[in-house]
Amino acid sequence: MRHRWWVVGFQQARDDRAEGEKVSNGALDLVQARNQLLGEHNSTGRSVRLDPEALREALVDLYELWLTTKGHEVGITPDSGLALVAVGGLGRREMMPYSDLDLVLLYDDVDPQRVAEVADQLWYPLWDAHIKLDHSVRTVPQALRVAADDLAAALGMLEARHIVGDEGLSNLLISGVRRDWRAGIRSRFDALIDQAQTRWRRSGDVAHRAEPDLKNGRGGLRDIQLLDALAIAQLTDAMPGLGPEVPGGGLQQSHRRLLDVRTELHRVAGRARDQLRAQDADEIGAALRIGDRFDLARMLSDAARTVSYSTDVGLRTAGNALPRRGLARLRRVPVRRPLDEGVVEHSGEVVLARDARPQRDPGLILRVAAASAQTGLPMSATTLNRLGEDAPELREPWPKEALNDLLVLLGAGRGAVDAVEALDRTGLWGRLFPEWGVVRDLPPRDVMHTWTVDRHLMETVAEAGALSTRVARPDLLLLGALLHDIGKGRTEDHSLVGAELAVSIGNRLGLWPSDVRTLAAMVRHHLLLPDTATRRDITDSDTVKMVIDALDEDPHLLELLHALAEADALATGPGVWNDWKASLIGELVRNCRTAMAGEPLPEPTPIPDDLRARAESGGVHVDLKPGEGRYHHIVTVVAPDGPGLLSDAAGVLAVHSLRVLSAELTSVGSSAIDTFVVAPRFGDPPDPGLLRQELIRAINGDLDLASVLARKERDAIGTQPRPFAQAQPRVFWHETADPGRVLMELRAEDRIGLLSRLAAALAEAGVNVCWAKVMTMGSAVIDTFCLDLGDADTPGRRAEIAAAVLAVVPPQQPKKPPEADS
Q1: What's the rounded Cα separation, in Å, for the pair 461 and 564?
Q2: Which of 77, 213, 325, 724 is least enclosed by beta carbons within 10 angstroms?
Q3: pLDDT of residue 13
Q4: Distance between CA atoms of 571 and 289, rounded to whole angstroms?
Q5: What is the mean pLDDT of each run of 10 residues along the chain (822 residues)?
Q6: Among 534, 591, 531, which residue's Cα sits nearest to residue 558?
Q7: C-alpha closest to that of 128 among 271, 26, 22, 18
Q8: DSSP secondary structure, 600-619, as one string
Q9: 398 and 531 inside one domain
Q10: d(CA 188, CA 677)
Q11: Domain ACT: where (predicted)?
Q12: Which residues contact 162 (CB under 8 A, 6 or more apart)?
């Protein structure tokens, strides 16, 4: 017995009862001893406040002592054919101050009248003492039938523990329930998931509720019991996917913290309670020596998000481990579908390819996460653990392909939120961005914000992805969304601190110095437009001058801040972004843009002499040489010019899994010169001789590129539904100094063979492309085509061309109705 001073108090309470009165008359001694534990005084009258863990242990000892003593008094002995079994909190050894007492009285070959008498002698004293009691009296076969028919009862009995009486009888129940649970888990697994999802919908997320349900909410104590049930079924480890080195200390530490908060909640409330009320948070935080309610909220967010991630991993692992029957047992081993270099899909998860070498490939972490975000497939916990153990740090500045993979990840919309959450819970995101630790699980300081700061940043990234086609630099928009509040959690102005951090991070990512300055300015001024528009006269010339002076008259920065302001507001909470604010900021931006100078239009790059000479010599030529990045290559195509050449060249590259990162398309005489910067989706690039042969086949009409690309896109999507674009594709028209020539700029999200499809659409529309510049930034494309429309340059003709171009880009994600505020 661990806490001897309260044992003395328990015995004293029994002795203080009326002299000569039998102890069996009631359980007031139990209540008095419990109150003594909660009253923070020992038997000598000195103040002794047990910490939450010690209090739970003391309560378990107390109830076991009382039940054992009472059981012996009423005849529940080892040879009596009776046994008392605890389930619930007492069964788990997690007794809370005011939790229900869940007991099962088992009997075998005992007269029913005798069983009833014993039950009454057990239950009535507890009822008379106002101790909440959940009880049942059954034989072992009866209990097993109840567990087979009632999922909730089965989950409870999995936690059963012998207290007093015939231990063999208790073991029959415990072993029988667990045996039946393992044997029947395949048929009960779907119901188990449905039950959990219903509970999550009803109770919300512990991590993001102002007054969370610590027991039933997503990431709460019920989820840990769910993991234990899956472990008993031998489908998963009870502590999946996390270790002690991850942020917050892993699942075991999170479990203890949730128990501690719930214990203090009972102690503060003076009764059983699972929902943490805001008015109790400061007192509980102080009792746990955590700090104020904000510190408590931060600790709870970390614990609950760790539990949520572990639950997702556990359910996924269990689903893959379910025993198969019938024809399912005869199916072939799941195919490993390539997703990126060193990354494949296997059994519905993103995993490492067999030949992947994490020790030599620091960018593999980002490629795995980008593939997960784009496909919507979760990353395997084993893969994340292996990356955590083996993947080295990225060198600074990052390689270009690593930056591009980061942009692909951030541009994936809602998929980016889940992927970054998984990286963060396993310690990998903090390795990429050490600054994240200050904002991780940081609670908001005002009621408008729904999310913790780190989650708000990712929500802003997701919203910014849907606005990426409104800006000329979607890459900087995504990075600005990721970092705009990175300076929070410090005493200084978070915009100023964040701007300094943005410089450090931008240099680490390998951005151009001018882009680093723009990124820092976005973070520094991310509140400039909403604050000015809602607090000052936006028609006043002094107001407009103040804004454009702060932005150094940079129209690109103004455009980026406009989109970031909307994304930030949308990610803050319901109703923060509305028509009134949108109209004010929009008018302010228009006034500032009018006061700024015009922007230079894109121009073709001069043609090197060697390429000019090759073009003048005629013929079809394809060269391939290494580019600047580890996986980047430069493909140069010189061939007789024609309406379908660009489509054929880009299509051949796409067929051979070469993703076009940028391209410049020009011509000399009757020959076209198309230069592509490409990256293989996986493996090595094909031989340039093969590319040349395929290009000639396409030019001659012997290769149906449209059909091959359609099939390749279907294979790439696999079993997942066709992905929708996050952002609305947009076409912009710019005038040039040459009559009849216009610039058409397309901003859209990428898809397999997009450039080939665009060129084919322009060719079918009868448009002459004079030159083009193509740029891919993550998953977004900015494609500029110089079109010679001649006398046919009319609004109707432009609308016709725009419609043809937009018909081949990914469709936009359908809008979902707003979720109810939790």
Answers
A1: 9
A2: 325
A3: 52
A4: 32
A5: 51 51 64 83 62 94 94 94 95 93 95 95 92 94 95 94 96 96 94 96 92 95 95 79 60 94 94 92 93 94 94 91 62 73 92 92 95 93 91 92 94 94 93 95 84 95 94 96 96 95 97 97 97 89 92 95 97 90 93 79 80 88 87 90 89 91 88 90 89 93 90 72 72 89 92 91 92 89 92 93 92 51 34
A6: 591
A7: 26
A8: PPP-PPPPPHHHHHHHHH-S
A9: no
A10: 52
A11: 634-710, 743-816
A12: 83, 84, 85, 170, 171, 174
| Beta-bridge partners for 637 | 622, 674
Residues 592 and 690 in one domain: no
Domain, as residue range, for 521 = 455-604
* Co-location of 296 and 407 in the same domain: no
Strands across the sheet containing 780-788: 621-626, 633-640, 671-680, 658-668, 768-777, 780-788, 741-749, 730-735
Give the Cα separation of 789 and 768 in Å (integer). 7
**Count of CB atoms within 10 A of residue 10's CB?**
24
Between β-strands 658-668 and 633-640, what pairing exists: parallel, antiparallel or unpaired? Answer: unpaired
Question: Are 678 and 770 within one domain?
Answer: yes
Domain boundary among 323, 343, 369: 323
Half-sphere exposure of 235 (CA within 13 A, CB side): 28
Give the Cα separation of 707 and 695 in Å (integer): 15
Q: Which residues contact 707 (CB under 8 A, 6 or more apart)?
A: none
| 125 and 55 in a common domain | yes
Question: Rounded to an integer, what distance in angstroms lies between the CA atom of residue 247 and that of residue 376?
Answer: 24
d(CA 211, CA 191): 28
Is residue 355 domain-resident? no
Q: What is the pLDDT of residue 24?
A: 45
Q: Identify whether the C-beta of residue 623 lies closer than 8 Å to the C-beta of residue 573.
A: no
The vertex-274 CA angle with 269 and 276, nearest 5°, equals 65
Task: Judge whether 811 and 725 are in contact, CB under 8 Å.
Answer: yes
Task: Using alpha carbons, select from 76, 120, 458, 386 the residue that is nearest to residue 368.
Answer: 386
- The answer to whether position 642 is within a domain reads yes
708 φ/ψ angles, rounded to the nearest 5 degrees: -65, -40
* Domain final residue, candidates 124, 156, 184: 184
804 domain residue, yes or no? yes
CA contacts within 13 A on the Cβ side of 324: 11
Overall number of domains in the chain: 5
Distance between CA atoms of residues 780 and 776, nearest Å: 6
Residues 6+ apart with CB under 8 A from 722: none
Q: Is residue 332 helix, strand or coil?
A: coil
Phi, psi of 274 (to 5 degrees): -110, -20
Angle at 487 between CA 593 and CA 726, to 5 degrees: 55
Q: Are residues 648 and 771 in the same domain?
A: yes
Token duo for residue 349: 């998860």
Count of residues in the chain: 822
Q: Do β-strands 82-87 and 161-165 pair in parallel, antiparallel, or remain unpaired?
A: antiparallel
* Assigned token pair, 450: 């729904």
DSSP string of 431-491? HH-TTHHHHTTPPPSSTT--S-HHHHHHHHHHHHHTTGGGSS-HHHHHHHHHHTTTT-SSS
511: tokens are 């951005």
Domain match, 303 and 405 both: no
Quote the pTM value: 0.87
In a domain, 700, yes or no: yes
Buried b / exposed e across 685-705, counting CB within 10 Å, b at 16+? bbebeebbebbbebbeeebeb
Query: What does the angle CA 663 – CA 667 – CA 670 come to, to the nearest 5 degrees?
Result: 140
- Cβ neighbours of residue 276 closer than 8 Å, sequence gap 6 or more: 211, 212, 214, 261, 265, 284, 300
Closest CA to 279 of 259, 263, 296: 296
Cα 661 from Cα 247, distance rounded (Å): 35
Q: How far apart are CA 58 and CA 78, in angstroms?
A: 25
